[in-house]
Amino acid sequence: MTRRESREHIFKMLFCRDFYEMDEWKEQAQMYVDALQPVEGQLTEEDKAPMLAKAVAICEKSEELDAKIDQAAEGWKTKRMGKVDVTVLRLALYEMEYDDQVPTKVAINEAVEIAKKFGGDESPSFVNGVLARLVD
């Protein structure tokens, strides 16, 4: 499985987070991962656990991530942002701050690509602008 495909699955799990209590969301995320069918050369059973673990880690840090996003997004708070945009921003910021295997530029580029695929017309530029402000 490519990192982009993995990121998209993580994004989908995270997107559902705001619709469930944490314990129920963990069950939903586990069911999502369990439902993914292994495809030779694309998805293996070994790919599933790291995706779920990363999604859970991001959820556990969501308050901290949201506070940083709120500071960077002038005039916007995460509570007022579209769910796609917030989810993409959380994923990218987590990768920028806590995932040593993902360079910052890659995290930003991938976030913009996910925003293009799942967000509205303004999502890619909004996500790019907020993340650019978060770069040290």
Summarize the structure in words.
This protein has about 140 residues and is mainly alpha-helical. The protein is built from seven helices and no strands. The radius of gyration is 14 Å and the shape is globular. The termini are far apart. Helix 1 crosses helix 3 and helix 1 (about 5-15) packs across helix 5 (about 85-100). It has one domain: NusB-like (N-utilizing Substance Protein B Homolog, Chain A). Helix content is about 70%, strand content about 0%. The protein has helices spanning about 5-15, 20-35, 45-60, 60-70, 85-100, 105-120, 125-135.
Q: What's the tally of helices?
A: 7
Main sheet characteristics: none
| Terminal CA distance | 30 Å
> Rough shape?
globular
The succession of helices and strands, N to C, reads HHHHHHH
> Average pLDDT value?
92
* Strand coverage percent: under 5%
Structural class: mainly alpha
CATH fourth-tier homologous superfamily: NusB-like
CATH topology: N-utilizing Substance Protein B Homolog, Chain A
CATH class: Mainly Alpha
CATH architect. name? Orthogonal Bundle
Question: What's this model, at a glance?
Answer:
The protein has 136 residues and is mainly α. The protein is 71% helix and 0% strand. The N and C termini lie far apart (30 Å).
How is the secondary structure organized here?
Layout: H1 3-15, H2 22-35, H3 45-60, H4 62-72, H5 83-98, H6 104-118, H7 123-134
